[in-house]
């Protein structure tokens, strides 16, 4: 079943925008949508279509390279969860493994970065492919995607009645931005076994995800009533969804929706999610605007990084021997 997600223009939350009635209206729409589905389409995000298309071209070229070339930058050799993950090496729903291959990257942090010096997990240097043009395309896209994510975090904070910069200035380090490149091979190319999905049913881990895709389709979202809908993202839009930590922050006012990906027939699918997670050492606790007077929060505070690491350990075979065995 194909359904139309709400489309929200977040251009009024650009970093040079001042307070406005438009911001209030957009924030109300985000609040209504996140109470309902937790998924919506975004325009006015600031990512140049040509930058996105060049990134899609470069990632397709990388995934077309020989397996030994891709495995040379395997995520298993990275101390900070950056690199290539082969077909079925991640299992988001069951032991079959997802019918996809990925490349995980994040903000480039050299050996002198304070979090690297401190040994904070998930911080460090990338393993970028040597594919011609990839590094330049990555640098351009990552920069614009982070700016888009900053717009979304301002809009989300506004929607929750907090100062617009609340999610961008939390103590505990820097906001974590992890950019992932995903290739779902056509079902005829890599045949699924019975019940195997391109991406198993799951929720995202952090605060918010911004997804760019190639228009092929395949993403499905489970609504609050339990029905599944097919999501189509028109050219120029991003798919945005909230992550698990939002339930703690909002005291269940917003909860993350399960979603999955079905590999399309007779064509490859490429997508680029940017996962936004609060600083590793940030404490996630219910916002005062989300706890009714006289009530206690539904959740104990949760350290952002501990939750992120627990989810990664549970889904990646190189970090979980039981998954590797399966």
What this model shows, in words?
By secondary structure, the chain is α+β, with helices and mostly antiparallel strands. It has one domain (7-325): B-lactam Antibiotic, Isopenicillin N Synthase, Chain (Jelly Rolls), CATH 2.60.120. It is 27% helix and 20% strand. It is built from 8 helices and 14 strands. An 8-stranded mixed β-sheet has the order 1-2-10-7-12-5-4-3, with helices on both faces. Strands 6-11-8-9 form a 4-stranded antiparallel β-sheet, with no helix packed on it. It has a two-stranded antiparallel ribbon with strand order 13-14. Strand 1, helix 1 and strand 2 (39-43) form a beta-alpha-beta unit. Helix 1 (21-36) packs across helix 5 (134-159) and helix 2 crosses helix 5 (134-159). The chain is globular and about 60 Å long. The protein starts with 6 loop residues before the first strand and ends with a helix. The model is unreliable at 319-326 (pLDDT under 50).
Outline of the structure:
This protein is α+β, with helices and mostly antiparallel strands and 326 residues long. 27% of the residues lie in helices and 20% in strands.
Characteristics:
single chain, 326 residues, alpha+beta, Jelly Rolls, four-stranded antiparallel beta sheet, disordered C terminus
Shape call: globular
By DSSP, the count of extended strands is 14
**What is the fourth-level CATH superfamily?**
B-lactam Antibiotic, Isopenicillin N Synthase, Chain
- Per CATH, which architecture? Sandwich
Output the helix-strand order: EHEHHEEHHEEEEEEHEEEEHH
Mean pLDDT: 90
CATH-assigned fold name: Jelly Rolls
Q: Give the total of domains.
A: 1
Strand order of the largest sheet: 1-2-10-7-12-5-4-3
Strand-residue proportion: 15-25%
- Percent helix, as a range, is 25-40%
Main pleated-sheet profile: 8 strands, mixed
* Overall CATH class: Mainly Beta
Low-confidence regions: 319-326
Protein structure class: alpha+beta
Radius of gyration: 19 Å
In whole angstroms, the N-to-C terminal distance is 33 Å
């Amino acid at each position: 079943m194909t359904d139309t997600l709400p489309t929200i223009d977040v251009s009024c939350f650009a970093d040079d925008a001042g307070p406005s009635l438009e911001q209030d209206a957009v924030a109300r729409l985000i609040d209504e949508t996140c109470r309902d589905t937790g998924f919506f389409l975004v325009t006015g995000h600031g990512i140049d279509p040509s930058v996105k298309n060049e990134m899609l071209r470069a990632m397709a070229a990388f995934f077309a390279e020989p397996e030994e070339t891709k495995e040379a930058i395997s995520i298993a050799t990275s101390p900070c969860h950056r690199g290539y993950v082969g077909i079925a090496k991640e299992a988001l729903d069951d032991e079959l493994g997802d019918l996809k291959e990925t490349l995980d990257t994040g903000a480039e942090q050299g050996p002198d970065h304070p979090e690297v010096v401190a040994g904070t997990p998930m911080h460090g240097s990338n393993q970028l492919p040597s594919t011609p043009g990839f590094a330049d395309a990555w640098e351009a896209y990552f920069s614009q995607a982070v700016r888009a994510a900053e717009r979304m975090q301002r809009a989300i904070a506004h929607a929750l009645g907090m100062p617009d910069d609340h999610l961008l200035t939390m103590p505990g380090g820097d906001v974590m931005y992890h950019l992932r490149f995903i290739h779902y091979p056509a079902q005829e190319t890599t045949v699924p076994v019975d019940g195997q999905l391109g991406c198993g049913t799951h929720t995202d881990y952090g605060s918010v995800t911004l997804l760019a895709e190639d228009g092929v389709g395949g993403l499905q979202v489970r609504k609050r009533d339990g029905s599944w809908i097919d999501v189509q993202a028109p050219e120029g839009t991003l798919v945005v969804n909230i992550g698990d930590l939002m339930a703690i922050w909002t005291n269940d006012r917003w909860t993350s929706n399960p979603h999955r990906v079905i590999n399309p027939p007779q064509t490859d699918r490429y997508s680029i999610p940017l996962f936004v997670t609060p600083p590793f050492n940030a404490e996630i606790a219910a916002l005062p605007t989300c706890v009714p007077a006289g009530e206690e929060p539904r959740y104990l505070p949760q350290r952002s990084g501990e939750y992120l690491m627990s989810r990664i350990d549970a889904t990646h075979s190189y970090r979980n021997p039981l998954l590797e065995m399966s």
